[in-house]
Amino acid sequence: MAANINIISWNVRGLNCPNKSGDVKWVLRNFRCDIAILQETKMEEVNFSTAFSLWGRRSVDWLVLPSVGRSGGIVFIWDDQVLELVDSKVGTYAICGKFKSLNDDFLWGLIGVYGPNDDNLRSAFFNELKFFMSQWDIPWCLGGDFNVVRSPYERSSGGRLSSSMMEFSDFINDCGLIDPPLEGGRYTWSSHEVVPILSRIDRFLFSIEWEDHFQG
Questions:
Q1: Where do the structural domains in the chain lie, given as residue ranges?
Q2: How far apart are CA 99 and CA 83, in angstroms?
Q3: First vs last Cα of the chain: how many Å apart?
Q4: What is the pLDDT of residue 198?
Q5: Contact between residue 73 and residue 62 where contact means Cβ atoms under 8 Å apart
Q6: DSSP code of 176?
Q7: In this protein, which residues make up the domain named Endonuclease/exonuclease/phosphatase (predicted)?
């Protein structure tokens, strides 16, 4: 049976702050993940010193979507004794890696996303993800901050079903992706106001082939 894969996704809202980078170090080292998807890094580049400092192990490799100034940015950081990067692509809203699991030579794709807040950019965002998945005929996993929900139920403020919600659901269905239920709560994001706005804008999606391989 294939080994499980441990993936962490986190919108870190900036890695340059010592307190935030300290929190990230603690999580990555204590949860011993195989690969991490960090969004909104606000970093234009990541070198070995930065990757090693965050990862805490010399068996580290990384892939970067640079920030635009101090806005956005995505980083993959992974254990290079567990995964080998075979190929990669970097877009506007996502980074994409074709990985080989070294325990069994299984090839699969991972897309780390940081979606736009602008409804007018949603179509370009979903088209970019579809383009990435069209490049290789392999099982897929997508994770990150999509900045959109699928239904009013996924927002504390409720509201009506919007075109963006429907477009997100259409994307998931068109690509044949599984959207697993969230465990431990209903929401993944908070505005941290006195009366906070809550929503589920962060999630993992994956193909049935990916789920079948990484059982449990």
A1: 7-213
A2: 6
A3: 11
A4: 95
A5: no
A6: T
A7: 8-208
Whole-number Å distance between alpha carbons of 153 and 110: 27
Residue type, 81: Q
> What DSSP line would sit under 80-115, residue for residue?
TTTEEEEEEEE-SSEEEEEEEETTTTEEEEEEEEE-
Q: Phi and psi at residue 93, in whole multiples of 5°?
A: -115, 0
pLDDT value at residue 69: 80
What is the CATH number assigned to the segment(s) 7-213? 3.60.10.10
pLDDT mean across residues, the chain: 94
Helix, strand, coil distribution of the chain in percent, nearest 5: 30, 30, 40
* pLDDT grade for 18, boundaries at 50, 70 and 90: confident
**pLDDT tens profile 88-103:** 999 999 999 999 999 9
**CA distance to 60, 119, 122, per residue, from 33 (Å):** 12, 33, 30
Given a cut of 80, whether residue 2 has pLDDT beyond it is no
What's the burial of 189, exposed, middle or buried (CB within 10 Å: 0-12/13-18/19+)? middle
Whether pLDDT at 16 is above 90: no
- The percent of residues above 90 in pLDDT, for the chain, comes to 84
- Cβ-based neighbours of 41, under 8 Å, separated by 6 or more: 12, 14, 15, 67, 72, 73, 74, 75
Q: Taking the C-alpha atoms of 42, 48, 53 and 56 in order, what is their torsion angle to the nearest 10 degrees? A: 130
